[in-house]
Amino acid sequence: QVQLVESGGGLVQAGGSLRLSCAASGSIFSINAMAWYRQAPGKQRELVARITSGSSAYYTDSVKGRFAISRDNTKNTVYLQMNSLKPEDTAVYYCYARITTAQATGIIQGYWGQGTQLTVSS
C-alpha cells in the first residue's frame, strides 16, 4: 500500500506565502513524476505544477513566477512553495504521484493524497 499525506494548508491573507508538503510512504520502489493539483468550489480539478524525477518543473500559467515546486527524493516528499497568494488561489490542493511499488516493479500507478485546504482572504 502507498499513501500520500499532504500538510501545510490553511488560511492566509492575499499577498502572503505558504508551503505545502506531501510525503509518500509505503511499499515504494520508485517515484516518477510528482504533481500538485487544485480544485476550487464548482470547478474542475486542474494541474498546478508538476516535477519529474530529474526535477524538471512545469507550471500552469496562472501560478508562474509565484509558485515553486520541488522534491526531496531521499524523503519521497514534494513541496509547493506559494508566494504572492491571491484569493483565486483558494482551493483544495491535492498531491499526485506516479509510483512503482515493490510488489509490481513493472507497473507505474497514479496515487492521490487526501487534499489540503488553502483559503486566501482578500
Task: Summarize the SSE layout with pairings.
Blueprint: E1 2-7, E2 10-13, E3 18-26, E4 28-39, E5 46-51, E6 57-59, E7 67-72, E8 77-82, E9 91-101, E10 109-112, E11 116-121
Parallel strand pairs: 2-11
Antiparallel strand pairs: 1-3, 3-8, 4-5, 4-9, 5-6, 7-8, 9-10, 9-11
How is this structure best described in words?
Helices cover 0% and strands 60% of the residues. The chain has no helices and eleven strands. It has strands at residues 2-7, 10-13, 18-26, 28-39, 46-51, 57-59, 67-72, 77-82, 91-101, 109-112, 116-121. Strands 2, 4, 5, 6, 9, 10 and 11 form a seven-stranded mixed sheet that branches. The protein has a four-stranded antiparallel sheet with strand order 1-3-8-7, with no helix packed on it. Strand 7 and strand 8 form a beta hairpin. The radius of gyration is 14 Å and the shape is elongated. The mean pLDDT is 96.
List keywords for this structure.
mainly beta; 0% helix; 122 residues; elongated; four-stranded antiparallel β-sheet
Task: Give me a quick take on this structure.
This protein is an all-beta fold and 122 residues long.
From N to C, what is the helix and strand string?
EEEEEEEEEEE
Poorly predicted ranges (pLDDT <50, ≥5 residues)?
none
Structural class: mainly beta
- Based on DSSP secondary structure assignment, what is the total number of beta strands? 11
How would you describe the shape? Answer: elongated
The largest sheet, given as strand count, sense and whether it forms a barrel, is: 7 strands, mixed
